[in-house]
Specification:
single chain, 8 strands, 64% helix
C-alpha cells in the first residue's frame, strides 16, 4: 500500500529552513549593530490617530518625491551659463542664443524620455511640500503643540519652512529663462539696496556685474547639495524629537499629559504610511501628467533687457514680491549713501513677520509663566488671542500675495492697477486688525457655548409647559467624557504688576486673558447636575417619560 505526502507538507521543511536562516541572519546582524532593542521599542511606539496629523506626512513624502525626481533631473541638467545656439526639436527657438543651462532644460523637456513628466513632478512636489509645511505649522500653532518640551522642534520646523523657500527659489532659478531671471534681478536689487555692502554682496553672489557667469552653478550646488542635506538632517532630528517627546493628542476619553492613546507604529502605522506615500505619489504624478507648469520654452532664454508682464514666483514666495509692490519709491541719501526704503522696509518687515512666527512659543511662555510639559492639545477657540494672532498673520500674508498679483488682477477684472495697489495698502493695515477682532469674538462666543453646553447639555428644541405655565426646554445630557473635554483646558488670568511681575508682562497677560471665559468649575457642574435632575423629574411627571412631540405621537 503506497501513501502520498500532501504538497503543503513537502514545502514545510523548506519554509522552516528559510525561517531558520532568516533568524540566524537577524541574530548575526543584531549582535553586531545591537538594533533589536531599538527596533522593538520603535515598532511598539504608540501614535494617536487624527486626520490633521497627516499634513506632516504629506510634507515628508513630497520631499521623498523631490529627492527621487531631482536625482533623475541631475543626470541630464547642465548648470552652465556658457552661451550656445539652440538647434533642438523645438522649432520656435531654433537659432536662438541661450545658456547651456536653458538648453539642457529644453533637452530634458523634449528629448529625454519621461523628462518633462519628471520636471513637472519635481515642481508640483515642491509646491505640495510647501503647502503641507505651512498647514502643518499652523495646525501646531493653533493647537499649542509648540509648548514645552517642543519649542526646539518648532524652531526646526520653522527652519525647514525657510529652507523649503530657499530650495524653491534656487530651483526655479536654474533653467535660466526670462521668468527665473526676473526673480534673480529682484534678488540682485535687494542685495544692492543694502547701504555700504550691497554692491559687494551682489558682485560676490553673481561673480561680477549682474547676471554674471557664476550664479547658476552656485545655485545648483545650493539646490542639490547644501539645502537637501540640511533638510534631511533637520527632518531626522525632527523625527527623533517626535519619538523622544511622544506625539501630542487631542483631549478625549482616557487621554492625559501622561499617556498616548492610539495605535503602534508596527504593523498599523507602517501599513498606513506605506499606502499614504503611494497615494501622495499617485496624486502628484496625476497632476504632473495632466497639468503643465513652468513651461520655460514659452518664456524663452533669459535676457536682462526684457521683463515679461505678469511674471511671478511660486506662491510661497509671492508675499516677498507683494511687499515690494506696495511700498512707494522712497529713497534717502545719508552721509553720501543712498537708502532705498522701498527695498529695505519690506525686508525688515519680512524679518519681523517671520521672526514673530519663530519666537511665538517663547513669547507665550513668558506671558503665561507656564513651565509645565504639555502633551494634550488646545482646542483653538479656548485660546482666542493666539488664534486671532494666527489668523491676523495669515491675513497679512494673503494681502501681500494678492498685492503681488495686482497687475494680473487689474487685467482680469478690468480695474486700475493704481486703485488696486491703494486698496492693498489700506488692507495691509486694516485687514489683520479686523481679522484678529472677528476671530477673537468668534472664539469667545464658542467658549460661552461650550460653557453652557457643559452645564446644561445639548439643546433639543423640545419645550414642556408646566401646570403653572412655565416653559422648560428638554436638554440631552452629555456623557462624562464629552463634558470633560469642554472643561479641561487651562484658565489663565491677567496678572497685576508688582511682586516680581513687570508692568510689561502684566499688560501682556491682560491683552491675552482679560476676556477669556472661565471653564465650568466642579461646584458649577454639581449645581447644574442637581438642577438638571430636578428638571428631569418634573418633565418626566408631565410627560410620563415620553419626550415625543404631539405630531410624532400622531404619526406613530
Amino acid at each position: 500500500m503506497s501513501t502520498t505526502t500532501p504538497a503543503s507538507q513537502k514545502q514545510a521543511p523548506k519554509q522552516g529552513r528559510a525561517m531558520k536562516l532568516g533568524a540566524v541572519g537577524g541574530d548575526w546582524l543584531d549582535q553586531r549593530v545591537s538594533g533589536g532593542g531599538f527596533i522593538k521599542f520603535f515598532a511598539r511606539k504608540i501614535f494617536p490617530d487624527h486626520w490633521s496629523f497627516m499634513f506632516g506626512e504629506v510634507a515628508l513624502y513630497s520631499f521623498v518625491i523631490l529627492l527621487i525626481t531631482g536625482t533623475f533631473l541631475t543626470m541630464f541638467f547642465d548648470p552652465s551659463m556658457e552661451e550656445v545656439i539652440y538647434n533642438g526639436p523645438y522649432e520656435a527657438l531654433q537659432g536662438a542664443h541661450m545658456s547651456r543651462a536653458f538648453e539642457s532644460t529644453l533637452e530634458i523637456s523634449f528629448e529625454v524620455t519621461g523628462g518633462l513628466l519628471f520636471r513637472q513632478m519635481h515642481h508640483w512636489a515642491a509646491l505640495v511640500f510647501m503647502v503641507a509645511i505651512y498647514v502643518h505649522m499652523f495646525r501646531v500653532f493653533f493647537t499649542g503643540a509648540f509648548r514645552k518640551p517642543r519649542e526646539l522642534n518648532w524652531l526646526i520646523g520653522f527652519t525647514l519652512m525657510i529652507l523649503g523657500m530657499v530650495a524653491g527659489f534656487s530651483g526655479y532659478s536654474l533653467p535660466d529663462d526670462v521668468l527665473s531671471g526676473n526673480g534673480l534681478r529682484i534678488a540682485d536689487g535687494l542685495a544692492k539696496s543694502m547701504p555700504v555692502v550691497g554692491t559687494y554682496i551682489s558682485f560676490l553672489l553673481f561673480g561680477g556685474e549682474f547676471p554674471g557667469t557664476d550664479i547658476i552653478p552656485r545655485l545648483y550646488t545650493i539646490h542639490i547639495l547644501l539645502v537637501p542635506a540640511a533638510i534631511l538632517g533637520l527632518i531626522a532630528i525632527h523625527l527623533v524629537l517626535l519619538v523622544l517627546h511622544k506625539h501630542t493628542q487631542y483631549p478625549g476619553p482616557g487621554r492625559s499629559d501622561r499617556n498616548v492613546v492610539g495605535f503602534p507604529l508596527f504593523p498599523v502605522y507602517t501599513a498606513k504610511a506605506g499606502g499614504f506615500f503611494f497615494l501622495v505619489f499617485g496624486v502628484i504624478a496625476l497632476i504632473s501628467a495632466t497639468t503643465s507648469i513652468n513651461a520655460v520654452w514659452v518664456y524663452g532664454p533669459y535676457d536682462p533687457s526684457p521683463v515679461s508682464a505678469g511674471s511671478q514666483p511660486d506662491w510661497y514666495m509671492l508675499f516677498t514680491d507683494g511687499g515690494l509692490r506696495l511700498i512707494p519709491g522712497w529713497e534717502s541719501t545719508i552721509f553720501g549713501y543712498v537708502f532705498s526704503w522701498n527695498m529695505l522696509i519690506p525686508m525688515m518687515f519680512y524679518g519681523a513677520m517671520l521672526g514673530f512666527l519663530a519666537l511665538y512659543p517663547f513669547i507665550e511662555a513668558w506671558v503665561t509663566g507656564d513651565d509645565r510639559e504639555h502633551h494634550l492639545l488646545d482646542l483653538p477657540y479656548n485660546t482666542p488671542v493666539r488664534t486671532g494672532l494666527g489668523v491676523a498673520w495669515i491675513t497679512v500674508y494673503i494681502v501681500l500675495v494678492l498685492a503681488a498679483a495686482n497687475d494680473l488682477l487689474a487685467i482680469a477684472l478690468d480695474l486700475s492697477i493704481n486703485d488696486l495697489t491703494w486698496l492693498y495698502r489700506i488692507l495691509f493695515f486694516v485687514a489683520p486688525v479686523l481679522a484678529f477682532w472677528i476671530t477673537k469674538r468668534l472664539c469667545l462666543s464658542l467658549q460661552r457655548q461650550a460653557h453652557q453646553k457643559a452645564l446644561h447639555g445639548v439643546e433639543t428644541s423640545r419645550i414642556v409647559r408646566t401646570e403653572t405655565g412655565d416653559m422648560i426646554e428638554i436638554h440631552e445630557p452629555l456623557n462624562e467624557y464629552d463634558r470633560w473635554v469642554l472643561v479641561q483646558h487651562d484658565d489663565y488670568r491677567p496678572l497685576k504688576a508688582g511682586n516680581g511681575v513687570s508692568s510689561l508682562r502684566a499688560a501682556a497677560t491682560s491683552f491675552f486673558f482679560k476676556d477669556s471665559i472661565t471653564p465650568a468649575s466642579p461646584a458649577e457642574l454639581r449645581e447644574a447636575l442637581e438642577h438638571a435632575g430636578h428638571e428631569k423629574h418634573t418633565i418626566d411627571q408631565l410627560t410620563g417619560g415620553d419626550y415625543r412631540t404631539p405630531a410624532e405621537k400622531a404619526v406613530h
